[in-house]
Amino acid sequence: MKLCSENTKIKKAFKGIRWSWKKIIGILGGGALLLSIYASIPKVVVEPGLIISPHNPFNTSFKITNNGFLPVKDLDFEYFFKEMKIFNVKFRGGTFRPKDNLIPKLKAGESTTIFINENIIPKGIPTSAEILIKIKFRLYLIPVKFKDQYRFKTIINNKGYSDWIQLFSSK
Question: Which residue in 64, 80, 83 sits closest to 72, CA to CA?
Fold first, then answer.
């Protein structure tokens, strides 16, 4: 009789240990899943680039950088002019989509440069402007389109030149 009760005790002890291993494996698996999701989150950023003509803010390039761990593909961009002021005349609204707005692939850590086409701007040099640069892209092997937008405004620095600063945009 004692042998049966000892076997039962041993079985109960192993059953508890087996249940603990299932919990540990589940927690480790969940952590690995969260880490892989975090690694695949796209991190594409847009920032002002090289100032070509300091008196004309639209002669500035913008740099798109993939700071994520995975390459992005089919990166598409467009400009939306929220407001522009030329000779005290305000212009509002208007979306511009350049002909060469599709970037087929941007590897992790890679950047590319885009330019605003001066042909879309009314004659004269803008004294102030605010634009949105809207981007859409996909991650490799994932069919979901990601969207983001970056808002920029011109300021006149202490030398009298135009600079772009990034504003926080509400999505």
Answer: 64
Based on the domain organization, do 94 and 17 belong to the same domain? no
The residue to which tokens 């937008």 are assigned? 149
Nearest to 126 by CA among 154, 150, 151, 98: 154
Beta bridge partners of residue 134, listed in sequence order: 78, 149
Can you list the residues of the chain whose pLDDT is less than 70? Answer: 1-19, 21, 38-40, 117-125, 169-171
Q: What is the pTM of this model?
A: 0.71
- Examine the domain organization and report whether 34 and 63 are in the same domain: no
How distant is the alpha carbon of residue 96 from its chain centre? 20
Please tell me whether residues 82 and 141 are part of one structural domain: yes
